[in-house]
Specification:
By secondary structure, the chain is mainly α. It is built from 9 helices and no strands.
Length: 191
């Protein structure tokens, strides 16, 4: 029936980020995680857990048990897909888990879109950071050594490198999220 189809379309649209509550929850998460990442260079697990729970409750409310199950699958998939990046110390575990909250809240399509924008922004921020701090030559030497000569060593080593090359990624990820979110809201990206 027409009424049933309209209800299903409404539920589908809300799952793509149509409610205010999901944006409020994500904004609180982005603010708290960015502050923590800027101050401590890490994102607390309690904050990630709160983000996952908020996402799953939103999905349960909007889509029912199916939506909640899909949210759990998105968390697991988001983490598993990015494990190799963590393995070479390209991203911290907190950053990977934080990005998985986007998948839990909105699904894999928005997770992928946010991830792509995030990767481009993170590369740009890293490049500018390395140039400003005159670290570019050293990092390229480490990268060349890692890729060509010795895959057993990690690209980033906290003992060797200290925090000079640690870039807090939560604010960059938040920027990517809002860029994608507002682009989708304005009709610039397909839902």
């Amino acid at each position: 029936s027409l009424r049933r189809r309209q209800r299903q379309m409404c539920i589908r649209d809300r799952a793509k980020g149509g409610d205010v509550i999901d944006v409020v929850a994500m904004t609180i998460l982005w603010i708290l995680s960015s502050v923590s990442d800027l101050r401590e260079y890490q994102i607390p697990n309690d904050l990630i857990l709160a983000g996952w729970l908020a996402a799953l409750v939103c999905r349960l409310y909007i889509q029912g048990i199916y939506g909640m199950g899909a949210g759990i699958c998105c968390i697991v998939a988001g983490i598993l897909i990015l494990l190799p990046v963590y393995g070479v110390h390209g991203m911290g575990a907190g950053d990977i888990k934080l990005l998985s909250v986007v998948g839990a809240m909105y699904g894999m399509k928005l997770w992928i879109q946010t991830g792509i924008v995030f990767a481009l922004l993170a590369a740009l921020f890293s490049f500018v950071y390395m140039l400003i701090n005159r670290l570019f030559v050293n990092r390229m030497r480490y990268f060349f050594h890692f890729v060509i000569l010795d895959h057993k060593k990690s690209y980033y080593d906290a003992t060797r490198d200290g925090r000079s090359m640690v870039i807090p990624l939560a604010p960059v990820m938040a920027l990517a999220y809002y860029m994608v979110f507002f682009c989708r809201l304005s009709g610039g990206m397909k839902s």
